[in-house]
């Protein structure tokens, strides 16, 4: 697998973790009382509280591992001809062309 495919795979993994995190928050977040007109929300069980307290730590660890792996893959990308300064010069030239259009 080439490095670009590995980068795409890693982006997909990070997106998967983020997507599941939002879903978990929606599913497991304790209810909140929105107004005095609503009854008190029910109490959560000890098991539910343990899940809610442990899951974010595990998710954050997985997310950070994914981000670090992505950074390592980006660092392994070869530099183009001319290095960073040539790339910045090329970007500046393209920006001028876009502005002139």
UniProtKB/TrEMBL annotation:
SUPFAM superfamilies attached to this UniProt entry: Mediator hinge subcomplex-like
Keyword Metal-binding included in the entry's annotation: no
Subcellular location: Nucleus
Record flagged with keyword DNA damage: no
Pfam families assigned: Med21 (PF11221)
Function in brief: Component of the Mediator complex, a coactivator involved in the regulated transcription of nearly all RNA polymerase II-dependent genes. Mediator functions as a bridge to convey information from gene-specific regulatory proteins to the basal RNA polymerase II transcription machinery. Mediator is recruited to promoters by direct interactions with regulatory proteins and serves as a scaffold for the assembly of a functional preinitiation complex with RNA polymerase II and the general transcription factors.
Name recorded for this polypeptide: Mediator of RNA polymerase II transcription subunit 21
The organism of origin for this protein: Riccia sorocarpa
């Amino acid at each position: 697998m080439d490095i670009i495919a590995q980068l795409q795979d890693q982006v997909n993994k990070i997106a998967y973790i983020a997507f599941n995190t939002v879903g978990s928050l929606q599913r497991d977040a304790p209810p909140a009382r929105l107004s005095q007109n609503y009854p008190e929300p029910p109490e959560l069980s000890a098991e539910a509280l343990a899940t809610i307290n442990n899951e974010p730590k595990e998710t954050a660890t997985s997310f950070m591992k994914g981000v670090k792996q992505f950074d390592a893959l980006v660092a392994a990308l070869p530099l183009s001809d001319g290095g960073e300064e040539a790339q910045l010069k090329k970007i500046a030239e393209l920006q001028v062309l876009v502005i002139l259009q």
